[in-house]
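REQUEST FORM: STRUCTURE PREDICTION
Request ID: SP-0412
Submitted by: Lab K.M.
Chain count: 1
Length (residues): 275
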Amino acid sequence: MSNLLWFLGLVLISIGLIYITYIRTEFRHNLAVYFFVMGLSFLMEYIVLILGDAYSYYPKLFSIQWYDDVFGSSISQAFFIPSVLMAIAAFRIRFRWIAFIIAAIYGIEELFLWLGIYQHNWWKSWFTTIILFASVFIIKWWRNRVEDPTFFIQFITVYMAITTIFQGISFGLTSILGTHQYNIGWFVSPYQDHIAFSVLVWIIYALLLTIIIIKYYRFKWLALIFFADLAFQCFMVKMDILEISTFWNPIYFSMILLLLLMLIRKLNNYMFPSI
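STATUS: Completed
RESULT:
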């Protein structure tokens, strides 16, 4: 069996859980939980995988190993784990079933190790188990908070959505279209170097974008962020930090930015209509 099919199997499980949650629950609350979990996983992966090189994935979709690692991590941390934890919180699953689910995830991790499509560098499977048990309590608490959200709950949820959605688009532009490459000199591998800097940019950038979406979603602010982003991209090109393909242009980044801001604004209004 192709390595990729095992990862696609996790995607199918994730889609099934999301669909069941959608038709049987108040989905806007659970969507907020989903983005929160995905964002937490994303931030942890930045430390553990991108900076720490804790494990490697082998879906064999890309010729570049770091792109394979990010793709495999995305299947796990952007689809599978968030959908499982969202379902646990949405359906108020009891502890004995939670223990069974986490044991099953442990078994899947061990299966992937045995199949050779996933490898630990210094990570251990029991690390995952401990993190999942701790996450369940956090996620259940968050699920209760999104029903009567404060500004803090809204801000963090939208922030998590921005970091994950924008970075996913950025990864696709790089790995599939080859539009751009960051050269910052932090790591020996130029691909690890690019991914580490790209993610860090969005982690910081998303703070400003979240405020705009929630508090200052007006034409003048969107226009300002468009031109500020364009200036930032041009500055990084001038400083030889950003290398752009001949068929691409910095203005395209800013256009995509505005389109995604509009999308996330709609998500914000769906998840938090009362605020």
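NOTES: The mean pLDDT is 94.
Reviewed by: T.R.
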